[in-house]
Write a structure and sequence with these properties.
Layout: E1 2-5, H1 6-11, H2 13-21, E2 28-32, E3 35-40, H3 69-75
Parallel strand pairs: 1-2
Antiparallel strand pairs: 2-3
Amino acid sequence: MTQVNMLEAKSDLSKLVKLLESKQEEVVYLARNGSAVVQMTLIPEKPVNKRIGVAEGKFNVSDDFDKWDKEVEDMFGGEI
C-alpha cells in the first residue's frame, strides 16, 4: 500500500499507474491533508469469452435434422 498526497499524485500519476500495473502495489491511496480520500486499484481483467461452443448445451438438435438434405439437393440439381 502506498499513500501519496494530491500534488504528488498529479505530478506522478503515470508512475503510480505503473506501480499498479507491475503489481508492485495492489492499492494506491491519494490523500488530502494527510487523510486518504481516494483509492486507486487496477480494474480486474474480464475473462475472454470463448466463441466456439458458446451455445453448447443451450438447445438440442433432433436426430432427423438433416432428413431433407437429399431432397433439397435434388431440387437444386446437384451435389452439395
